[in-house]
Specification:
The chain is about 45% helix and about 20% strand. With about 240 residues, the chain is of the alpha+beta class. It has two domains: about 60 residues; about 150 residues, 2-Layer Sandwich (Heat Shock Protein 90).
């Protein structure tokens, strides 16, 4: 039983960097495993449609509760972390996008959001495969969270000179000019809110920007204003 001794609660101290990094990796790995479970459940055959619908409803409720818990943990890990070791290699853009979309597809299916991908088959970038996929996962997750039910999301890629630009564009809540200035600032409090109670995950965009720079690239955001959608563009060296 907790005892109130009349003294104010002390603020929690952030974990040391190695510990926080381990927790962060654990939370990301757990989230990806949850996504895999959702994909398997979606593919199960329906023997008894009524019973199957009830089971799926229960499973999805538990799944999204666990997912919100994990994403809350990621938001709570408010410490600066490095990018970790990078392994630059030639990465076909189509493969990166395909893996990221596969891992995040459940979000779009749940909210009925059409997702279109337009990536030329001959595009490749120089970057760390794991970091690039996680970065694209973050952009796709952000697009779904901050877009309403049924809103379309598009992923496209093109080469310009010695750079390849990969853009994730949505028709969601958009960003005000003030929010646009702060969107890559870790733990910034922005005016926009997710549309279905999802964890905000704002620190993930700051982390994604850090990954882009570590790979010799950039991550930029654009929006015409509140309610007018947003686009995020990852630019990496062409391979």
């Amino acid at each position: 039983m907790a005892v109130d001794d009349g003294r104010p609660d002390l603020p929690l101290k952030p974990a040391d960097t190695p510990q926080a990094d381990r927790l962060h990796r654990f939370a990301h790995d757990l989230r990806n495993r949850l996504a895999g479970m959702q994909e398997v459940m979606r593919m199960l055959p329906a023997d008894d449609p009524a019973q199957d619908d009830e089971l799926r409803g229960f499973f999805e409720g538990q799944f999204f509760h666990a997912l919100r818990t994990v994403e809350g943990l990621l938001d709570d890990l408010q410490v600066e972390r490095g990018t970790g070791p990078l392994e630059p290699t030639t990465c076909p853009v189509g493969d990166l996008v395909e893996q990221a979309v596969s891992d995040q597809r459940y979000r779009f299916e749940r909210k009925g959001q059409p997702l279109t991908v337009q990536v030329p088959s001959d595009l490749s970038v120089l970057g760390d495969r794991d970091h690039a996929i996680r970065l694209l996962q973050a952009l796709l997750s952000n697009a779904s969270k901050f877009s309403p039910q049924g809103a379309a999301v598009q992923v496209c890629a093109a080469r310009q000179g010695d750079r390849v630009h990969i853009t994730v564009a949505d028709q969601g809540v958009g960003l005000s000019p003030d929010d646009l200035d702060q969107v890559f600032v870790r733990y910034a409090v922005l005016g926009s809110r997710s549309t279905d109670g999802e964890a905000q995950g704002r620190s993930t965009l700051a982390r994604a920007s850090q990954w882009a720079v570590a790979m010799g690239g950039t991550l930029t955001a654009a929006s015409s204003g509140t309610g007018k959608g947003a686009s995020f563009t990852l630019s990496l060296p062409a391979a």
